[in-house]
């Protein structure tokens, strides 16, 4: 169950914490590139100090209604941050992108994981991921980010997510991605209502049967807001519960905003798992 990310080997039978680092510009800030890079590095240092094993750098918002970004804009946002973190910090840099050019350049600058919420479905993404030689996370999504939450429908969400992921694994392997370089993600909130999300979380063990480590992301998501009736900034306890459950059910990576708190929660889950 070991996996190597740009020279760093991790035991994926344990649960690791991935900190989220958004490098989408704040429309209310007039900070230039230098300030943005500086701010990203400060945040990255804190995430590592807090215990993150991965930092997920993303330059494109996938929120429904978010503005689209050009390839050049995404490269300009993501690449300097990937390069700086890779050089300075002892952490795996993950790049949250669906864009082949960003995959290729990030891997060359030291990224250790490609995290694609579109499951390598964009033209050129399969080949870019394969040529990069680094591991990839393939996530399930129903539809496109802009419209995915309008009316998600499944006959059997667990089976359909499993079939989609299996098909994308075959496609990735067909393009030359090594089987032991593939991580899978059910894609919580990506074209799913609360009932779909809960069914997937309740059955996470069954997705392990696909034979790849699992990454899960539920931090602060609206599925948790629906359960506890709280705004996005008050969802830390709910997010910790979701991370704990995921770790107990065998997730190899949890993708979160609140790294320090999640590391503690996951440590308790791991200690219990090892005692069982
Ligand atoms: C996920 C992601 C997720 C993976 C986002 C948000 C939305 N990548 N990128 N899994 N979510 N692999 O954080 O609210 O669930 S962006």
UniProtKB/TrEMBL annotation:
<dbReference type="Pfam" id="PF00809">
    <property type="entry name" value="Pterin_bind"/>
</dbReference>
<dbReference type="GO" id="GO:0046656">
    <property type="term" value="P:folic acid biosynthetic process"/>
</dbReference>
<keyword id="KW-0460">Magnesium</keyword>
<dbReference type="InterPro" id="IPR011005">
    <property type="entry name" value="Dihydropteroate_synth-like_sf"/>
</dbReference>
<feature type="domain" description="Pterin-binding">
    <location>
        <begin position="15"/>
        <end position="267"/>
    </location>
</feature>
<dbReference type="InterPro" id="IPR006390">
    <property type="entry name" value="DHP_synth_dom"/>
</dbReference>
<comment type="function">
    <text>Catalyzes the condensation of para-aminobenzoate (pABA) with 6-hydroxymethyl-7,8-dihydropterin diphosphate (DHPt-PP) to form 7,8-dihydropteroate (H2Pte), the immediate precursor of folate derivatives.</text>
</comment>
<keyword id="KW-0479">Metal-binding</keyword>
<keyword id="KW-0808">Transferase</keyword>
<protein>
    <recommendedName>
        <fullName>Dihydropteroate synthase</fullName>
        <ecNumber>2.5.1.15</ecNumber>
    </recommendedName>
</protein>
<dbReference type="GO" id="GO:0004156">
    <property type="term" value="F:dihydropteroate synthase activity"/>
</dbReference>
<keyword id="KW-0289">Folate biosynthesis</keyword>
<comment type="subunit">
    <text>Homodimer.</text>
</comment>
<dbReference type="InterPro" id="IPR000489">
    <property type="entry name" value="Pterin-binding_dom"/>
</dbReference>
<dbReference type="InterPro" id="IPR045031">
    <property type="entry name" value="DHP_synth-like"/>
</dbReference>
<dbReference type="GO" id="GO:0046872">
    <property type="term" value="F:metal ion binding"/>
</dbReference>
<comment type="pathway">
    <text>Cofactor biosynthesis; tetrahydrofolate biosynthesis; 7,8-dihydrofolate from 2-amino-4-hydroxy-6-hydroxymethyl-7,8-dihydropteridine diphosphate and 4-aminobenzoate: step 1/2.</text>
</comment>
<dbReference type="GO" id="GO:0046654">
    <property type="term" value="P:tetrahydrofolate biosynthetic process"/>
</dbReference>
<comment type="similarity">
    <text>Belongs to the DHPS family.</text>
</comment>
<dbReference type="GO" id="GO:0005829">
    <property type="term" value="C:cytosol"/>
</dbReference>
């Amino acid at each position: 169950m070991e996996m190597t990310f740009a020279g760093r080997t991790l035991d994926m039978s344990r649960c690791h914490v991935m900190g989220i680092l958004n490098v989408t510009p704040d429309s209310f800030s007039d900070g230039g590139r230098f300030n943005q890079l500086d701010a990203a590095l400060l945040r990255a240092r804190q995430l590592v100090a807090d215990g993150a094993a991965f930092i997920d750098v993303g330059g494109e918002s996938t929120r429904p209604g978010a503005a689209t970004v050009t390839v050049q804009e995404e490269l300009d946002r993501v690449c300097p941050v990937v390069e700086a973190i890779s050089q300075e910090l002892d952490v795996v840099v993950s790049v949250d992108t669906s864009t082949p050019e960003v995959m290729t350049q990030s891997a060359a600058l030291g990224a250790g994981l490609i995290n694609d919420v579109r499951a390598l479905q964009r033209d050129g993404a399969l080949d870019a991921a394969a040529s990069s030689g680094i591991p990839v996370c393939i996530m399930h999504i129903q539809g496109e980010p802009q419209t995915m939450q309008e009316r998600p429908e499944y006959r059997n969400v667990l089976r359909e997510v499993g079939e989609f992921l299996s098909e994308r694994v075959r496609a990735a392997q067909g393009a030359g991605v090594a089987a032991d370089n593939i991580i899978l993600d059910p894609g919580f909130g990506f074209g799913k209502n609360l009932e779909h999300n809960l069914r997937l979380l309740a059955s996470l063990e069954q997705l392990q049967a696909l034979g790849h480590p699992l990454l899960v992301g539920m931090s602060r998501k609206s599925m948790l807001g629906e359960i506890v009736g709280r705004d996005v900034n008050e969802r830390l306890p709910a997010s910790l519960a979701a991370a704990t459950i995921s770790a107990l059910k065998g997730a190899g990576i949890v993708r979160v905003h609140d790294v320090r708190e999640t590391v503690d929660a996951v440590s308790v889950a791991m200690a219990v798992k090892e005692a069982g």
